[in-house]
Amino acid sequence: MKKFWNTAIWKDKFELWLKNNNWAKNLWEKMPHKYLKRLDYYIMAKFLGTYIFAIALIISIAVVFDFNEKMDRFMQHEAPWSAIIFDYYQNFVPYFANLFSPLFVFISVIFFTAKMAENSEIIAMFSTGMSFKRMLRPYMVSAAIISVVTFFLGAYIIPKGSVTRINFEDKYYKERKSSTARNIQMQVDTNVVAYIERYEDKRKTGYRFSLDKFDGKQLVSHMTARSIVYDTLHANHWSAREYMIRELDGDREIIKRGNRIDTVLQLVPDDLISMKNQQEMMTNPELSAYIDRQRARGLSNTKEFEIEYHKRIAMSFASFILTIIGASLSSRKMKGGMGLNLGIGLGLSFSYILFQTVSSTFSVSGSMPPIVAVWIPNVLYAFIAFFLYRRAPK
Question: Judging by beta carbons within 10 Å of its beta carbon (0-12, 13-18, 19+), is residue 246 exposed, middle or buried?
Answer without folding.
Answer: middle
